[in-house]
Amino acid sequence: MGPLGLSRAGLWLSRAMSRCVLEPRPAGKRWLVAGLGNPGLPGTRHSVGMAVLGQLARRLGVAESWARDRRCAADLALASLGDAQLVLLRPRRLMNLNGHSVAQAAELFGLTAEEVYLVHDELDKPLGKVALKLGGSARGHNGVRSCMSCLNSSAMPRLRVGIGRPTHQDAVQAYVLGRFSPAEQELLPPVLERATDLLLDHIRQRSQGSSSSP
């Protein structure tokens, strides 16, 4: 896509988001899904949350709809899931500052912490394991800690994607910032699929619960 196409895409998303913010919505019908990571470092273990967001965008048919939003320093894409709307977010800030982008987007779209999903890497789970956690501590994850601080809450549901832990504790930083090995890359596609399935199933269930509430 050329510069003109990118400019038009950005303008469309800006107008769409303005309508979304201004128009009334049913409670619980919009969700923010944030893939935590470091911008400019795709393919690294620490940015696997962003890889899940890429798979999610492809599944929802909005892979070509990402556009930069300077108000929250992030790339955003809007998608529909039944009657619900999903705001997909990939921060353009470093992992330790991801929370600023997430909180600004939550404010922009009028969402509470409970309506914000965080997708991130998990050292204490092996590659291939994914799990959904409802609230709780950051468990040493700096991106989650940043989100908790900026949202002033620990209530965000979190999709944790296992990346495994290195043998030596002093190698953790190099490990998480490193790229997946060739063998790990072969395992990654089905992991991203399972993570996307788990996330969408949970959002569908919550959306249905919201629609049936008085």
UniProtKB/TrEMBL annotation:
Keywords, ordered alphabetically? Hydrolase, RNA-binding, tRNA-binding
Q: Which Pfam families match?
A: Pept_tRNA_hydro (PF01195)
Matching entries from InterPro entries are given as:
Pept_tRNA_hydro (IPR001328), Pept_tRNA_hydro_CS (IPR018171), Pept_tRNA_hydro_sf (IPR036416)
Keyword Cytoplasm: yes or no?
Answer: no
Q: Which domain of life is it from?
A: Eukaryota
EC numbers = 3.1.1.29
The record, for CDD domains, names:
PTH
According to the record, the segments passing through the membrane are none
PANTHER family tied to this protein: PEPTIDYL-TRNA HYDROLASE
Please report which protein family the annotation says this sequence is part of: Belongs to the PTH family.
Can you say what this protein is called?
peptidyl-tRNA hydrolase
